[in-house]
Amino acid sequence: MRPLPDLAGADAPFWQALRRRELRVQRCGNCGAYRFPAARTCPHCRSDEAAWVAVAPAGVVETWCVFHRAYFDGLPVPYTVIQVRLDCGVRLFSNPIDIEPDALRIGLEVEAAFDEITPEVTLLKFKPRRA
Ligand SMILES: [Zn+2]
Questions:
Q1: Of the chain's two ends, which shows fewer C-beta atoms within 10 Å, N or C?
Q2: Cα(44) to centroid of ligand 1, in Å?
Q3: Which pLDDT tens digit goes with each residue over 55-110?
Q4: Do residues 115 and 83 touch, judged by C-beta distance below 8 A?
Q5: Rounded distance, CA 47 to CA 113, Å?
Q6: In the beta sheet, which residues pair with residue 113?
Q7: Is the dihedral of CA 61, 77, 67, 21 positive or negative?
Q8: What is the distance in A from the centroid of ligand 1 to the CA of 130?
């Protein structure tokens, strides 16, 4: 069994949104900065006012790593982990879909792919952005 996210944790609104094929992150109610994962206070202005808002499900690949060693049961190797910077500025880790490892480039434009791996869990992955 592969590792699964904690759906009931502080990032619950993120996971619930993915079920609806929507991407939501926290936005500071004071300065407007976006952040993910969830944090109690804004790293820019320290305000504790925040809401989960939908953001454009698009970004660019900043870097990547191909794992050849198995760290988790149920995750066959090799697999690729990418760091994506969303258009709203948030950085997160994910996996590419329909992108061969040797086709990855810094700055590659990608868009969200919603991968329903169980009836409860949808993972956020990224595929090449359509022109
Ligand atoms: Zn702020």
A1: C
A2: 5
A3: 999 999 999 999 999 999 999 999 999 999 999 999 999 999 999 889 999 999 99
A4: no
A5: 32
A6: 125
A7: positive
A8: 32
